[in-house]
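FW: tagging you since you asked about this chain on Friday. Here's the raw sequence from the shared folder, copied in full. Didn't touch anything.
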Amino acid sequence: MTSAKQTPSRLRLRRRLRLWLRARRVAGRSVAVALALCAGLAAGCGKKGQASGGPAGPPPPKEIEILALQPTEVRDTGEYLGSLLSRGSVTVLPQVAGYVRAVLVRPGQKVAAGAPLLEVDAREEAAALASAEAQRAAAAASLGLARQVRERTEALFREGLATAEELDQRRAAVEAADASTRAAEAQVSQRKVAVQYNTVRAAVAGVVGDVLVRVGDFVTASTRATTISQAGALELSISVPAARARSVTVGMPVELVAADGSAELTTQVFFVAQDADPRTQLVELKAAVPEGRGLRSSELVRARVIYSTRQALQVPARAVVRQSGQAFVYVVVSKGQGLVVERRPVTLGDLGASAFVLEQGLGAGDRIAVSAIQQLRDGAAVKLKEPKPAGAPPSGAAGAATGSAGASGAAGASAGSASGPATGGGAAGGQGAGR
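HL: got it, structure written out here
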């Protein structure tokens, strides 16, 4: 009974042992196959290295573009925001206080000198004028009476009926009446001028600006009514730092800068302020701007002041390499039968539109590399890039064609590996096209 009960468990144990041994044999075969494949690949790589002729030689010279340095004009400039002012702009202010009765012009209208612009209520001045005229008439009557009395007194004095004292009094009365008459005349003239001020007139001929008052507005002598701008030259007003203004002189060139950075026109400084603004420490410069440029008064423009010009070498920004704060360029020199590049430190000045001013490190005639800078090393062999013939495809198209050829070669390699014996030919075709 005991042996019969143990038989099934022994069978299960034996079955598990056989399965484990079979798994070990399969795993051993897989490892052997993997080791054989690795050995085969290593042997193939060794043969390929022997067929290629041993270690690779020096890399071919790199094609680059060069630039021969030559002195060019370098300008010390400063750009500022300037304002255009009319050289004949007049601000119109009333000379009396009162309500505006009529506006006689419109903005943009051309007027002659002395043309009426607006009228201010003149009733008060008219009443004052009438009062002054009445006082003048009274003074004139008093003067006439004083003269008659003086004449009678003189006749009585000749007949001995009047004393000399009475005659002197009558003469003094005539002089006083005459003075009062002159004062009344002056008062009338003053009132007439005040009445004329009630009609605001153009001081100069020109174009009326924006009219800032309307009928019914109360104006005073400090109310800005409008402006009149004379047609003609404009003034460019620029404020520059006091430190830079020390080198500014009358006649220094100034350029108006267009939107693309080019000089729209060139003029000269004709005025330099003697004092700096105490708040901003800026000094005002003025330059004349000729008419006919489509510019308008009060327009803001970009202005470039040319402080000085000199001849200097310039290095394109793309040719500069920086390392630890030091700037370097690659200089092309002859070595043996070929060309190599030497990395030389340089001292650079201000950066212009696309080039640095060269202060130290190179001389006129030196040739520097201006392309493939990141691929160059000190002492690397280079050759000059040949100019492209007319009608040659762009480099992007050539690269695309090469890439497509490499892709077709790779496809051939894949097809070869799938077909077995054709593997070698397919791989060779893919590598050749890729190179």
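FW: The mean pLDDT is 80.
HL: agreed, and The two ends are 82 Å apart (CA to CA).
FW: great, closing this out.
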